[in-house]
Amino acid sequence: MHTLNIKRTLELIWVKASLNLRSEASVNYLSYAWWVIEPLLHMVVYYVVFSFLLARGGENYVAFLLTGLIPWLWFSKTVNHTMGSILHGKELMNQLYIPKVFFPLTFVVQDSIKQVIVFALLLAFLILYGIAPSIIWLYSLPIIMIQFLLTIGCSLLAALAVPFIRDMSFVIPTGLQFLMFCSGIFFSHHDIPEHVQHYFFLNPMAVILAAFRDVLVDGVAPNFGQLAYVTLFSCVLIVIAAWSYKKLEYLLPRVVLE
Amino acid sequence: MTASIEKIIELKNVGVTYKERKSLFKKEEYQALKDVTFDVYKGETLGIIGRNGAGKSTLLRLLAGIIKPDKGEVIHHTKSVSLMALAAGFDPNLSGRQNAIISGMLIGYSKKQMLANIEEIKRFSELQAFYEKPVKHYSSGMRARLAFSIAMYVSPDVLLIDEVLGVGDVSFKQKAEQALEDKIKSDLTVIIVSHSEDQVKRLSERIVWIDGGKVREQGLPEEVFPQYNLNIRFSTFGLKVEKYEVNDDFIIHLEPLELNGNKFVFNCVIIDKLGRKVDLVSCQADGQDAVVISEPTATPRFGQRYPDNKYAGMARFGGFYFIVGKETSLYYGDNCIFTSKLIFN
């Protein structure tokens, strides 16, 4: 029943996400410390491999790598987490009426809260690495917002697809892997041939990663045209998702049990 | 407290079909509910009974507004319906208090409203220090207590209860039943689904009996239960009672014995409410010779149960049979004691 209006649902998502984080932390010995340790370990691994072992790239390579990797991990982890969320909520959704967006959005919020710390760590690293902070860095706020929208759109659709086609839980991670190599985490878009670049930037994550690098590493304004495209793209995804959730609201409790 | 005329939920010719995916192109259909029509009235306590697999859970989910039917319609005249599920949906790593907040919010309460009630829930649940500990450390009785306590403080207009009160120890159980009865006496509409006859009988004012995806019977508990129980007894043999009419002057108790081809052998305890001695009973199935039995055997249990009736202790007649698919009647003199028809399920 529609006992939950939008405001209550959002409040519920927020409370559930923050309690989930607590619950998640409570099972590990180092609890909240993992929020810092985990991304730190990631950063160390890439630093060691690319800077020491391979001695790759030019001078700012590690900074370049991490500014791409960290936003990417936010996106891919969230989509990976959320895709099974509706399926896992099958017991709950069969006990009372609950807007199904509750399940994926809780994960999106949860992962995004953690991401705040990771971004802070990234900025700290960049400064330690020797990149001078500038006012240009403020551009990263709208870029984060755009990525947040894109993540919501993709997560909502992934979570919706899995209950109907269970095979998607294998397809989506593979797709993410593919997308990872197409988003230019390990290489710059300057390194790919001019005529392919047009296609390269059809991938919204490639746009976002390039924008982060423009702002944080190179200290220049991002490409607004491309960012506008990603914003539009994300909004379209969200609208499609919202429409589908509304349409499938009463079908999902049955589908998840099949 | 009589039910007012106001309907709160209406079900009209409701059908639900589940599709089971076998592989890419193969699907199997399964009709959980075929054609269900009944109304739920405001303030009443309705019991829904039925055997396992009769479609009770599906019906509950329809009533809760979780799913929509494939056929017919369900009309809700309230927005606040929810299922009181005992001890499900808790996050094991969160404390009782945190789970209580989430549970209440899921039903539609705000965080503020839940925080206002949270101490009351703690007191009612008697969990004390455990209230602050993760639910994973709870015993199943404690979980049930927590869930029940939450349900007692956050109530929708229509409360659906699935298999009531597996709640912990005896003292809490009494308290829980008392609290539930108080709720029922208020203007809350309660729908109880269970196969525990005791509870449903005690708590419900009206019964809907679901069988094979349809409403088999609805009415007062004392009307529906005798038939329901009879049916349960026969269904062990794969039989279904299609017709069962009893003369009100008699108390009868059927004891099924065995199914032999299409011949169903049974004993019958027959007590005349008017106190006459029943000494000669004949049983006749359509187109068959009558079986006449004249010597009742001892039934001490019935003698104890009906001490005023001096023949109650000697009332079992043995060796009748039904022909499955044919109407069978039992006669005492000219009085028809009962007429019944059994069919294969």
Q: Layout of SSEs?
A:
The complex is a heterodimer of chains A (258) and B (345).
Chain A: H1 6-26, H2 34-53, H3 61-82, H4 85-88, H5 90-93, H6 102-129, H7 140-164, H8 168-182, H9 194-200, H10 204-216, H11 224-248, H12 252-255
Helix pairs in contact in A: 1-6, 2-3, 2-6, 3-6, 3-7, 3-8, 3-10, 6-7, 7-10, 7-11, 10-11
Chain B: E1 7-21, E2 27-41, E3 45-49, H1 56-63, E4 71-76, E5 81-84, H2 96-107, H3 111-125, H4 140-153, E6 158-162, H5 170-185, E7 189-193, H6 197-203, E8 206-211, E9 214-219, H7 221-235, E10 239-246, E11 250-260, E12 263-272, E13 281-285, E14 291-293, H8 300-305, E15 316-323, E16 327-332, E17 335-344
Parallel strand pairs in B: 3-7, 3-8, 5-6, 6-7
Antiparallel strand pairs in B: 1-2, 1-4, 8-9, 10-17, 11-12, 12-15, 13-14, 13-16, 16-17
Description:
The complex is a heterodimer of chains A (258) and B (345). By secondary structure, chain A is mainly alpha-helical. Chain A is built from 12 helices and no strands. In chain A, helix 1 packs across helix 6, helix 3 (61-82) packs antiparallel against helix 6 (102-129) and helix 7 runs parallel beside helix 11 (224-248). The mean pLDDT of chain A is 88. With 345 residues, chain B is an alpha+beta fold. Chain B has 8 helices and 17 strands. Chain B has a 6-stranded mixed beta sheet with strand order 5-6-7-3-8-9, sandwiched between helices. A 5-stranded antiparallel beta sheet of chain B has the order 10-17-16-13-14, covered by helices on one side. Chain B has a 3-stranded antiparallel beta sheet with strand order 2-1-4, covered by helices on one side. The longest helix of chain B is centred in the middle third of the chain and has 16 residues, at 170-185. The radius of gyration of chain B is 25 Å and the shape is elongated. The mean pLDDT of chain B is 82. The chains are: A mainly alpha (258), B alpha+beta (345).
